[in-house]
Amino acid sequence: MTQIADIIMYEGNNSTFIWKHPVTDFNSLTQLIVHESQEALFFMNGQTLDLFGPGRYTLETQNIPLVGKLLNRATGDKTPFHCEVYFVNKVEQMSIKWGTDSKVQYMEPVYNFPIAIGVSGEMSLRVEDFRKLLLKLVGTENFLGQEKLVSFFRSFLMTKVKTYIAQSMRKNSINIFQMDENLTTFSEDIWKMLIPDFLAYGVSLERFFVTNVVKPDGERQYEKFKELHFRQYADVTEAKLNQQIGLINAQTDAQKKVIASQAEATKRMQEGYSYQQERGFDVAERIADNEAVAQFTNLGVGLGTMAGVGGAIGGLVGGTVNNAINAATQTEVPAPAQAKCAKCGAALNPKAKFCMECGSPLSNKCPKCGADVPAGGKFCLECGEKL
Q: pTM for the whole thing?
């Protein structure tokens, strides 16, 4: 006896895209239950009929107009009819793995050398057009899950992805050695190019990610350009580091000198002398070490310079230096002959008015002009009269 379903509902899991109900005989009293994010499609004699969205339905004529037109309904609408019911899960299904079955051959856009890479990642899919997917891919199958759907897409996916990878890298000039930092741009570019290809089968490519790029590590040509790429940045970085180190060393030396100068200044201040005085001490010490004034020029210090130093340092040091210089440079002038008393011949003090020996007055008057004449003088200092 033919089994007539009382309730028709989805019994698949979340990884299923399309599921066919196992019972195919129904009558007008059969209940159809469609959950959220699902659709149910009636299929009869190779034709798609009515499509039901979320809700609970009784299979009456008013609810299934297309089915009703094909049925020869008996009195009371209790005669069973044969029909296939397909449920579609329209939830976005994520983390679907994909990968190229062979390496992608292309010309590296920056360094222009041939290279082969492998690419893999994940994608998320959602059924967009139930009828199109059912007619193009499902056919008479009872079930369409993730693995089976990916197997359907594998051949065209491999062809398309390889082509789009090469186009994207060439268009964006993505360096093979900078691939990892451009994965987001790379993924979005390929995703946009793949969307129309999936929609042609009624499937929406919601997301597409490139998560791994297999580079030809170990190949001689690849390693050669890898080294050149590394040196391009390493040399610049090394030069910058050396420049910074040199600047730091110069700043350190300058700071050391500042600290040493501050220490010397503090020492002088505590001991009570200035920098100029300290230099004067050094000059005086060098002068004292020489055996004769004539050797001053051997020290590279001129007499004028020495006199200047003496004036600058002032005080005791300046006086010492100036006295030494004056004693060395000035020529002795003979002292003038001392006046004697005209009466007794004793030596006279120039300011004395009487002889200290005989008491004779030492100041006379000029007989011509009356000016005072020092004792012992032979001529008047005013008019030149001979005495």
A: 0.54
